[in-house]
Amino acid sequence: MIATIRSGGQSGVDRGALDAARAADIPVVGWCPAGGWAEDHPTPPGLLTVYPELAETPSPETKQRTEWNVRDSDATLILTAPEGTSPGTDLTVGFASHWQRPHLVLDASAWDRSDMTAVVHDVSEWLRQQRQQGSGLVVNVAGPRASEWAGAYAASYRLVTGILEVGAR
Fold first, then answer.
1. Which ranges in 24-109 belong to alpha helices (H)?
2. pLDDT of 122-163, one tens digit each?
3. Beta strand 31-32 with 103-107: parallel, antiparallel or unpaired?
4. Most buried pick, 44, 73, 88, 149, via CB within 10 A?
5. Which pLDDT value is given to residue 149?
6. Which residue from 88, 74, 9 is spatially nearest to 47, judged by alpha carbons?
């Protein structure tokens, strides 16, 4: 069902998704800001040393990375922190609307370990509905960076791993 996971490589949700895909042998791609900038890799080549599959946008601004990842995906999953949305989340939703890409916002405060199975099932069903006949999806995964939500990486890794396991059956 999922052919590729796309994300921008920022710490937190982006990296959790990329690492879960790598662990499942699913290709990863994505746009990152010029110089490979991420909050924990501020100096070029930045996060490209760890994620060489990503490509740099011409701009160092994160806004371009966000837009291009939405634009170049079939669907976008957006995780939100338990504290609510962030300006980046709102930007991602706006780009999904602009590019007419399906998107699903997942409120992390609504899930815990006991109901993760239900969340994975619901997201997998939503992805099945987005799938074009005969082709796998390029799914963009976005959400807060680690400095905005300490549990972002773990939540994203768990969710994407679950989705990929369901999709493999």
1. 62-71, 87-98
2. 999 999 999 876 679 999 999 999 999 999 999 999 999 999
3. unpaired
4. 73
5. 93
6. 9
Residues of the chain below pLDDT 70: 111-114, 133-134, 168-169
**141 membership: H or E segment, kind and range:** strand 137-142
Q: How many alpha carbons lie under 13 Å from residue 6 in its C-beta half-sphere?
A: 23
Give me the number of domains the chain comprises. 1
Distance CA 13, CA 99 (A): 22
CA pair distance 39, 138, nearest whole angstrom: 25
What pTM does this model have? Answer: 0.95
So what's the pLDDT on residue 132? 72
Phi, psi dihedrals of residue 57, rounded to the nearest 5°: -80, 160
Identify the pLDDT of residue 111.
66
Q: What is the CATH number of the domain that holds 32?
A: 3.40.50.450
Buried b (16+ CB within 10 A) or exposed e, 48-86: bebbebbebbeeeebebbbbbbbebbbbbbbbbbeeebb
Q: Domain of 61?
A: 2-168
Of 144, 167, 168, residue with least CA distance to 154? 144
